[in-house]
Amino acid sequence: MRRTAEVAGAGLGGLAVATALALRGWQVRVHERATELRMFGAGIWLWENGLRSLRLIGADEQAIRGATRIKEWAVVDQHGHDMFRRGFTDDDKMVLPVRADLYQALIDAARSAGVEIVTESLVADAEPEGVLVLADGTRLPADLVVAADGAYSRIRESLQLTDKISYLREGYIRLLVPRKPGDEASVITEAWHGSRRLLYCPSSDEQHYVAFSCPVDDRRGRSVPVDKDSWAETFPTFSEIIDRIGEDGRWDRGMTVRCRAWSEGKVVLVGDAAHAQAPNLGQGANMTFTNAVSLAAAVSGDRDVVPALRAWEDRERALTDHVQRWSHGYGWIVSMWPEHLSDSRTKFLQFATAIPWVDKQLNRAARHLPVGDAS
User: Fold this and answer.
1) Which of the 8 DSSP states describes residue 370?
2) Cβ neighbours of residue 360 under 8 Å, at least 6 residues apart?
3) Tens of pLDDT, residues 319-340
4) pLDDT value at residue 84
5) Are 237 and 80 in contact (CB under 8 A)?
6) Strand, coil or helix: what is 22?
7) How many CB atoms are located within 10 Å of the residue 369 CB?
8) Quick check: 134 and 124 in contact, CB under 8 A?
9) How many Cβ atoms sit within 10 Å of the Cβ of residue 97?
10) Domains of the chain, each with CATH number or no CATH
11) Kind and range of the H or E run holding 358
12) pLDDT at 19
């Protein structure tokens, strides 16, 4: 008899784990509270570990079909001087699709694998015995319940799995701008000036992904629509790009979520519900994908789900926690470093990122092989 899984949340993580389970023979149903499946429009970094994970669930080719293959990631200071550069190769790639394209690829992969997706299905709770409870009181027993309901997870809170939620000093505005002839097409540029950052990411033949980061007390920096004059004054090199910004975009304050455990009985947390993190290293979704495919492998190899979930967390959590810490530390260097000492920050980063150990820590997740990847 096929084992069943009920998944709360049809975001990137929910669809990834649902597809991974279905491909291993599970009967899977995903519950989405919205009336339709939609994804906020911006770009997304897909590192090698994320690309390999998407390949394992058959979503990679469609996700990156119109995406930009990144040649290099350059981080520069207020004078345009390199603080560090990170190149990419055929075995250590970075591809940058529009988020909506990635989302559609996951929707199509899930449906192709036989996943049932139910919209306007509001989840209220879950019980450790393996029951998903809907807002209308409906109880859905399952062999596995997956909480992929985001950083503010109702299921995580109902099971009291939260250890700590931290709101960071900085926040982010992420959006898409039209591409024009002559634009840089394969290099990500991350420009720092004081406690502000501008991220320019080529994403497709039509659009670029642009992000702004600043402290929460920077009122002009965090305003939406974007205060173009303020940002162009800080980053005059990118004034022409900034001028293309429309009225869209949104401000999101950075946050991290830590849990006392990733599971309780037959209920398991994935994605932001388990390990929301600052987007500074672009690894949030990638770690979600690698954890999703390894979760499916863990529970499919053993009929007893509860110890399989514990073993999965023991194996995967150390790397996820590592990425969360380093992403937080990366943001701290921007937002907390005294502005009058910006030149010393440049020298510090030039020195630190040239150390092999630091390079290894920064790229530990990107060079991690997901469970099931035989290469």
Assistant:
1) P
2) none
3) 999 999 999 999 888 888 888 8
4) 93
5) yes
6) helix
7) 13
8) yes
9) 23
10) 4-166+254-362 (3.50.50.60)
11) helix 356-362
12) 98
